[in-house]
Design a protein that fits this description.
The protein has helices spanning about 15-35, 45-55, 60-70, 70-80, 80-100, 110-130, 140-150, 155-170, 175-195. The chain contains nine helices and no strands. By secondary structure, the protein is mainly alpha-helical. It is found in: Cell membrane. This is Membrane protein. Its main location: membrane. Keywords: Cell membrane, Membrane, Transmembrane, Transmembrane helix.
């Protein structure tokens, strides 16, 4: 069956974007709760924020919000003000939800393998929702989307390369087993993005 793409695709409405950003921010926060419940780490700017949180005792949300601030300039220059505004909202939602959710949920039993995959699925779906509504979670995601638009290099692969750097740092704060389980979660996230994010297929903005 031949796929037909409209010459002038319908744009996402304000309500479409609002629910996409809300879903993305909430599910990303859920993934962070799973991650920190197990003492895992992750990649991208969220990974740096998690590592700083572990090392200093500072809350993840404010650290993540501050780390993303320098990347908005690139987003503004390369992706436009709408992208930056939506990304700022998504980052703010993640920061807030990640502080609130632990008050209402906990895990009595959570195997590391299940937790890693659950984190990967939740975070991957969150990022897909944000990407398809013209946003990201800032930081490396901004650079990754810009590279994909300019060169065709998959956003997921760019993020995976940065993850390798972050996980090298993680070995200084966490044991090898914990980092290995954490890496499984990061691989799941990036595979979901690499296999499902296609601008030639998902063209509404």
């Amino acid at each position: 069956m031949t796929e037909i793409i409209a010459e002038h695709p319908a744009k996402h409405s304000l309500l479409d974007d609002a629910q996409g950003l809300l879903y993305g921010g909430f599910m990303a926060a859920f993934g962070i709760v799973v991650l920190t419940q197990l003492g895992f780490v992750t990649g991208q700017t969220a990974g740096l924020a998690v590592l700083i949180s572990y090392a200093t005792g500072w809350a993840f949300g404010p650290v993540f919000f501050v780390i993303n601030l320098p990347f908005y300039w690139l987003g503004w220059k390369r992706m436009g003000p709408a992208f930056v505004a939506k990304t700022f909202i998504a980052v703010a939602l993640l920061s807030v939800f990640s502080a609130i959710l632990p008050q209402y949920m906990s895990f009595q039993t959570l195997h590391p393998a299940v937790g890693a995959v659950l984190f990967g699925f939740a975070s991957g779906s969150a990022l897909l929702a944000l990407f398809r509504h013209g946003a990201s979670l800032g930081g490396v995601g901004v650079v990754a989307l810009w590279l994909q638009d300019r060169t065709g290099f998959k956003a997921g692969w760019t993020q995976l390369l940065f993850d390798l750097f972050v996980f090298s740092l993680a070995l200084m704060l966490r044991d090898l087993t914990t980092v290995a389980w954490s890496f499984l979660g990061a691989v799941v996230v990036n595979l979901i993005i690499a296999l499902n994010h296609r601008r030639d297929r998902y063209i509404a903005t």
